[in-house]
């Protein structure tokens, strides 16, 4: 959950998001080193009147400042490609959920069950209970078992939407007439918030996503209760 004045990412709740955080820190450290070096060179050039004749015309320096950026790009590209392939991997999901975007709410269908599905609307501000978050709470949460691979099939019924939960490292566009898929593993129990991340009309800001990760036993009890109510 993000908090006011937060500068970094939300705490990771999935293995992929942990990898993304590590890659972010890795890339940012390289940027800091490059920025420090460039700043030092600029200050040195401005503050001294001395000139080194070997720097004015030196093949060795030209080789260094050609090869070094190439090496740095490789050091950034390799872990980036690794994470891209990790995010695209969907191996033997334990549960498949179809998320449909509407103007302006989400509907969820648990395709492994006979008749388990519901609509998820934002709770109006005046109906919030103490401790609930404005514009982020939904009347029905998407409940999933923790430590289990979950596949999400994402589509839309009317206009473009985007199903995004930052702490799980998930963001997938919902396109009418197209079925996109993504996956995640919730590594700990908790409630994780997201919002539609594609401008979809007047109430774009009012269709939150709430994912609740619970132990498997609690998920089985919840699904049984939902099927009985249906």
TrEMBL record:
Residues 92-225 form the Cytochrome oxidase subunit II copper A binding domain. InterPro entries: CcO_II (IPR045187), CcO_II-like_C (IPR002429), CcO_II_C (IPR034210), Copper_CuA (IPR001505), Cupredoxin (IPR008972), Cyt_c_oxidase_su2 (IPR014222), Cyt_c_oxidase_su2_TM_dom (IPR011759), Cyt_c_oxidase_su2_TM_sf (IPR036257). It comes from the Eukaryota. It is a multi-pass membrane protein. Coiled coil: none annotated. It holds the Pfam family COX2. Its cofactor is Cu cation. PANTHER family: CYTOCHROME C OXIDASE SUBUNIT 2, CYTOCHROME C OXIDASE, SUBUNIT II. Component of the cytochrome c oxidase, the last enzyme in the mitochondrial electron transport chain which drives oxidative phosphorylation. The respiratory chain contains 3 multisubunit complexes succinate dehydrogenase (complex II, CII), ubiquinol-cytochrome c oxidoreductase (cytochrome b-c1 complex, complex III, CIII) and cytochrome c oxidase (complex IV, CIV), that cooperate to transfer electrons derived from NADH and succinate to molecular oxygen, creating an electrochemical gradient over the inner membrane that drives transmembrane transport and the ATP synthase. This is Cytochrome c oxidase subunit 2. The gene is COX2.
């Amino acid at each position: 959950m993000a908090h006011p004045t937060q500068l970094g990412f939300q705490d990771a709740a999935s293995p992929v998001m942990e990898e993304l955080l590590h890659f972010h820190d890795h890339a940012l450290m390289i940027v800091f080193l490059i920025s420090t070096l460039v700043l030092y060179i600029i200050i040195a050039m401005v503050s001294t009147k001395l000139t080194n004749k070997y720097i004015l015309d030196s093949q060795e320096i030209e080789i260094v400042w050609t090869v070094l950026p190439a090496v740095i790009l490789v050091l950034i590209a390799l872990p980036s490609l690794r994470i891209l392939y990790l995010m695209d991997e969907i191996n033997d999901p334990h549960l498949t959920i179809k998320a449909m975007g509407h103007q302006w709410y989400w509907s969820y269908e648990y395709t492994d069950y006979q008749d388990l599905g519901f609509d998820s609307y934002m709770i109006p501000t005046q109906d919030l209970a103490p401790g609930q978050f404005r514009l982020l709470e939904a009347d029905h949460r998407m409940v999933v078992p923790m430590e289990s691979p979950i596949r999400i099939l994402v589509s839309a019924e009317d206009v473009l939407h985007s199903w995004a939960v930052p702490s799980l490292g998930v963001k997938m566009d919902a396109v009418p007439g197209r079925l996109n898929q993504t996956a995640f593993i919730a590594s700990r129990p908790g409630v994780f918030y997201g919002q539609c991340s594609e401008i979809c009309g007047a109430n774009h800001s009012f269709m939150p996503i709430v994912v609740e990760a619970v132990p498997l036993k609690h998920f089985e009890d919840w699904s049984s209760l939902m099927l009985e109510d249906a």
